[in-house]
Specification:
The chain is of the alpha+beta class. The protein is built from three helices and nine strands.
Length: 155
């Protein structure tokens, strides 16, 4: 958006409201500001929501007076964990096994955790240092972790 008001140059401001959060980030030297936030519950089911429907909430919560909207979109947070992370010789890692809110920034970290957990086990089995049954531990360990992650990012 093009806006004015309480904007930290070269920074990011986060505010917490009764229905969630709002983030204000200036876009490098363009005079534009990126606004990210949670849609108030009164508008959650509205598939065709417009910026005008939330303008008053946005301006009140962020302190930014919006002069022009360049782009507005909504993103629905989905959270799921696959029933299985293994089927024979096929293993799921990362987003293939679990998706969740991006809040907390744990998506890539969790995917790398899946990969590391599986990699050392595969290496040990392939190199003959462990029995193939070691691979059976991957699924319950990572599914449990994924469920705990969703519980913490979905609050």
């Amino acid at each position: 958006v093009k806006g004015s008001g309480e904007i930290t140059p070269n920074g990011m401001d986060t505010t917490i409201s009764s229905y969630g959060f709002a983030i204000v980030m200036p876009v490098r030297q363009s005079g534009s500001v990126r606004l990210i936030g949670i849609v108030p519950k009164a508008h959650e089911a509205d598939e065709t929501i417009t910026f005008e429907a939330v303008r008053a909430d946005v301006e009140r919560d962020t302190g930014v007076k919006v002069h022009e909207v360049n782009w507005f979109s909504t993103y629905r947070v989905h959270h799921r964990v696959a029933e299985r992370f293994r089927a024979g010789r096929v293993f799921l890692c990362g987003d293939a096994g679990h998706i969740h809110s991006p809040a907390g920034g744990q998506g890539m970290n969790t995917g790398m955790g899946d990969a590391v957990n599986l990699a050392w086990k595969l290496a040990a089995v392939v190199q003959g240092r462990a029995d193939a049954r070691l691979l059976d531990s991957y699924e319950p360990e990572r599914i449990a972790f994924a469920h705990k992650l969703i519980e913490s990012t979905d609050k």
